[in-house]
Amino acid sequence: MVNPQGRTLTFITTDQCGARCAHCLMESGPERESTLTYESMRRRMDDIASGGDVQLVVFTGGECTRLGDDLLESIAYASANGLLTRVVTNVEWAVDEVSAVSMIRDLREAGLREINFSYDDFHRVWVPEANLLNAWRAAKGVGFGSVVVALASGPRSRVTVEWLRRSLGHDLPLAYDETHRRLPLPEPSADGTRYLISNSRLIRVGRGRGLRQGYMTPEPVIGGALFQRCPPENAEPVITSEGNVAACCGIYPNGNEVLDLGPDGRPSAAQRTILAAIRQLGPGYLLGLLNQAGVQVRHRNSYVSICEVCEDVTRNPTAVAYLAENLPRIEQDLLAASALASAAPEAES
Length: 349
Ligand code: SF4
Ligand code: SF4
Prior knowledge:
The chain has an 8-stranded mixed beta sheet, covered by helices on one side. The model has no long low-confidence stretch (mean pLDDT 92). The protein folds into 2 domains: 7-217, Alpha-Beta Barrel (TIM Barrel), CATH 3.20.20.70; 266-348, no CATH class. By secondary structure, it is an alpha/beta fold. It has helices at residues 38-48, 69-80, 97-110, 121-124, 129-139, 161-168, 269-280, 283-292, 306-314, 317-325, 327-348, and strands spanning 7-12, 54-60, 84-89, 114-118, 146-153, 194-201, 238-239, 245-246. The protein is globular, with a radius of gyration of 21 Å. Bound molecules: iron/sulfur cluster (SF4) (2 copies). Residues 17, 19-21, 24, 26, 28, 61-63, 90, 118, 123 line the site of one iron/sulfur cluster.
């Protein structure tokens, strides 16, 4: 894993996936068809990454390995241009040892530096745990910078940190502490690779919107998600599976009236102001405005993440239309918040 402060370009390479997980934020599945090509990704890398401030290119999905040579060529192009690369995969390809070794060899030969295996209760319905073991064994000691198992879990989960440690036979360090704060990266192992579990909480976005509350780990602060701002590190460039630029991939961005910035990535006035409010005041602020105006958007009794709040606000056309009609009010609140923020240090001194 590279420095998390480094700028990241993310390709949602495809919506297609052999699995159809109940919590999938991208709502991917075998029937979905949007897919990027090598040419489209190369052009985006030339446009966005050539400025020099992108360090890492992430290939996610859907299941990015379904792109075959288009994925390998894109990894090779990024590597040849000095960019670090990461693949996020559900290990559907690791059906036996030979297939696992062959895929890992292809990815490494293309120059891939980091690999994340997504695995949890919902993946396990579709992808046998033997695949994870095959992929894990094949990825060990072959020169990756990091090999990460990405786990999303809650109080009812069977696939847990302990389950993964036991299954993989490795006392893997964690990426987050019990309050969901990022821990310092562990030292690389003797073979030069960092091995860890990225232990995040389940959240209810995308297909997971309807998951029962009992699956979720409650927020440490009651109503906390309603008061948080979207941190600046979430504002990284994303290319959707339809080739558009998006403001983030915390929720499915395709066609989202706020997050999907279209083919040229130029936000409208409404998108600019609403995005500024999400980042500086938080999506809970927008939810509050909508509540005051009687616009019903809530799909949940309580929220465990700002992205859940953001999804309720930005995926509702009536809500977005109301916000677009009330930009002066939002801009006024943004100005007041930045005036307050710049006055605060003086008040304290
Ligand atoms: S969560 Fe991952 S593996 Fe599951 S359907 Fe979505 S993209 Fe596929
Ligand atoms: S709060 Fe909204 S903009 Fe921020 S990461 Fe979540 S979905 Fe994206």
